[in-house]
Design goal:
Length: about 230
């Protein structure tokens, strides 16, 4: 199994290649530089691995939610590679990728993910470690932080830029059970490729033309007069 993963949905930019059980990754937090970095990252890991594009089984992408421009960039790169190699795409939630990474890094079972969506809202979801999988406890949504209603039954961690911007509000609406807050957690292609591999094994890959961005809302720019 050989799967490439692309992510440019947030301030971070990353690419990863899974060959059987080994992962090669390039990752950098570089706001507004993703378009300059992503293709060189892909070239580097492909060269390091000795794998050819024609040998790939699929391309996974961080399909959002996240930056409108960033998600479109990841989609375009993914579709370009997939069309050229005649292989399918595997969309993976950026929020779920953050939860996957956090469960491993911080040894927690429940993760509240929040990406700052601007317009005084966050991209929000809650995930629980279910052993061999990650269970979605509260679905992806774009929501004002004060409108969130979720009380966990165990210690949890809050991750993502939304926690940096709205730390006090989110801590209040989710209760005092928060174990720690990590606002600098971003999606990583290493997690996306692992989640993509699970979907590949479950025959959940799709034609690349249908590997489309997830925006969660139609309005992607600031409202007139908003701050």
């Amino acid at each position: 199994m050989k799967i490439l993963a692309i992510d440019t949905a947030t301030e971070a930019c990353s690419a990863a290649l899974l060959i059987e059980t080994e992962i090669i990754e390039r990752y950098q937090v570089a706001p507004r530089k993703q378009s300059e970095l992503i293709l060189p990252m892909v070239d580097e890991i492909m060269h390091e691995s000795g794998c050819l594009m024609s040998q790939l089984d699929a391309v996974a992408l961080g399909c959002g939610p996240g930056s409108f421009t960033g998600v479109r960039l990841a989609t375009a790169v993914t579709q370009g590679i997939a069309f050229a190699a005649d292989i399918p795409g595997i969309p993976v939630s950026t929020l779920k990728a953050m939860a996957h990474d956090s469960m491993s890094r911080f040894n927690v079972d429940c993760v509240m993910t929040a990406i700052d969506a601007r317009m005084k809202e966050v991209y929000w979801a809650v995930y629980q470690n279910a052993g061999n999988s990650i269970s979605e406890q509260q679905p992806e949504q774009v929501i004002a932080p004060q409108d969130i209603s979720y009380q966990a039954n165990s210690s949890v961690i809050g991750v993502g830029t939304g926690w940096g911007t709205y730390r006090q509000i989110l801590s209040t609406v989710t209760g005092s059970i928060i174990q720690r807050i990590e606002p600098e957690v971003f999606p990583r292609a290493a997690s996306i490729v692992q989640l993509g591999a699970e979907k590949w094994l479950n025959n959940e890959s799709i034609d690349a033309q249908h590997a489309l961005p997830v925006y969660l809302r139609n309005q992607v720019t600031h409202r007139s007069g908003s701050k």
